[in-house]
């Protein structure tokens, strides 16, 4: 370090008073920090200490991204409601993307002000881009929803969106990681703004939200996020598998191609988000619903239900059955989920997300999986009364035992390995009725 002693910057720094305590070691005044966030464009804000149990499962990812984290600033920015409620999807998508950009800009402005005051802070981003090298695993750094709930900015409704007590679900969430403690932290509100009116259930075009509160992740992901991630992969593979231009046009309509072009040249289009559009919860939002519920449904919900549009479903899925029965006037297109687990932990993690409970009707079985080779793992999958449970190790008595070379199993899931050939070679072995393996596959159509 001696060679730096005479450098002007080094001399300047050493001439500064060493008696000043670094700002990051001083607790920030909560009221002042809140005022700063609101001044920079946030509509509401809360603070969560890194040690809060409610976000304990996020600690590894948060601390890996910013090891100095002591506090999480959670804030919301309001959306323009009518842009979301309209069946004109272009208006809704512009609102989504514009508000995400606004959230990121607000976060940057807050972070810049804190940095100028000597406080280290890091913005993981409100939406995209994400850590796509991890795909199809967890590609986001911070799960904004549980942080917002912990910060007192609302609770999650049956549609799995955070509902703010005043602004309703017409919000975008932002989080800032902070290398400083705050004098006072905020805590969850004492009631859930969700009315459980079930309008989100009624509006959802793929039946992703059940009347009993069950959520079908696969149905929502396949349709609403068709032009994101796995849906894009499926589209690209459709191009690769097409014999020529005529064959491609037979598989993909001109409007679909144009929509994908728009997503690539601008930003990806959400296909629905009708659950958000139909939600009447929140002090600023509830008046029309309470004043005339019938009129509210006619004006907001029915246009979404009646909209002529393409609904993307996985063949053999609960969504396919639901759309055919509930929305026969909508055009249904069968597509692949595009999801291919790249590891055995990824396969096990994805089972609850891809499980089609209505396809498991009548199935009550315990499956023991033993994976060998490059990834050694034991797991138990229990399917009973249309409920899935995944456990580490072998638990209970198995109705079917599956022993598989891990890489062979992953290639089988990706449809790159023939099951019969793998069974003949002993790469996959089963003990029990083959019909149970067939029934298992039916619960996870791809």
UniProtKB/TrEMBL annotation:
It holds the Pfam family SCP2. Keywords: Iron, Iron-sulfur, Metal-binding. Residues 185-214 form the 4Fe-4S ferredoxin-type domain. InterPro entries: 4Fe4S_Fe-S-bd (IPR017896), 4Fe4S_Fe_S_CS (IPR017900), SCP2_sterol-bd_dom (IPR003033), SCP2_sterol-bd_dom_sf (IPR036527). One of its GO terms (molecular function) is metal ion binding. This is 4Fe-4S ferredoxin.
């Amino acid at each position: 370090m001696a060679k730096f002693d005479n450098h002007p910057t080094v001399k300047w720094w050493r001439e500064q008073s060493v008696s000043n305590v670094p700002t990051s070691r001083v607790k920030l005044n909560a009221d002042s920090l809140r005022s700063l966030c609101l001044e920079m464009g946030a509509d509401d804000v809360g603070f969560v200490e890194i040690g809060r149990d409610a976000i304990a499962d996020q600690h590894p990812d948060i601390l890996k991204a910013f090891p100095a984290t002591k506090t999480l600033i959670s804030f919301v920015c309001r959306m323009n409601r009518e842009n979301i409620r309209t069946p004109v999807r272009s208006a809704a998508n512009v609102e989504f993307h514009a508000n995400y950009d606004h959230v990121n800009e607000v976060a940057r402005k807050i972070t810049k002000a804190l940095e100028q005051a000597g406080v280290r802070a890091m913005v993981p981003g409100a939406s995209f881009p994400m850590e796509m090298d991890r795909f199809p695993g967890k590609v986001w750094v911070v799960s904004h929803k549980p942080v917002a709930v912990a910060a007192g900015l609302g609770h999650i409704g049956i549609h799995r969106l955070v509902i703010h007590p005043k602004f309703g679900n017409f919000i975008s969430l932002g989080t800032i990681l902070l290398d400083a403690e705050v004098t006072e932290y905020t805590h969850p509100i004492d009631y859930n703004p969700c009315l459980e009116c079930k309008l989100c259930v009624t509006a959802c075009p793929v039946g992703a939200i059940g009347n009993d509160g069950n959520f079908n992740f696969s149905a929502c992901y396949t349709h609403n996020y068709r032009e994101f991630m796995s849906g894009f992969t499926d589209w690209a593979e459709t191009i690769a598998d097409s014999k020529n231009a005529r064959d491609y046009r037979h598989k993909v309509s001109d409007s679909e191609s144009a929509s994908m072009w728009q997503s690539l040249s601008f930003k990806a289009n959400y296909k629905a988000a009708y659950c958000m559009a139909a939600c009447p919860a929140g002090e600023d939002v509830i008046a029309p619903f309470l004043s005339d519920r019938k009129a509210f449904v006619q004006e907001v919900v029915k246009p979404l239900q009646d909209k002529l549009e393409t609904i993307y479903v996985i063949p053999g899925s609960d969504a396919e059955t639901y759309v055919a029965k509930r929305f026969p006037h909508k055009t249904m297109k069968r597509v692949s989920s595009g999801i291919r687990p790249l590891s055995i932990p990824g396969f096990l993690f994805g089972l609850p997300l891809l499980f089609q409970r209505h396809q498991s009707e009548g199935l009550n079985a315990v499956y023991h999986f033993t994976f060998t080779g490059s990834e050694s793992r034991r797991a138990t999958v229990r399917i009973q009364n249309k409920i899935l449970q995944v456990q580490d190790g072998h638990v209970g008595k198995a109705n079917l035992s599956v022993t598989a070379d891990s890489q062979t199993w992953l290639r089988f899931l990706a449809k790159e390995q023939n099951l019969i050939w793998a069974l003949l070679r002993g790469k996959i072995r089963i003990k029990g009725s083959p019909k149970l393996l067939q029934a298992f596959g039916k619960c996870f159509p791809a």
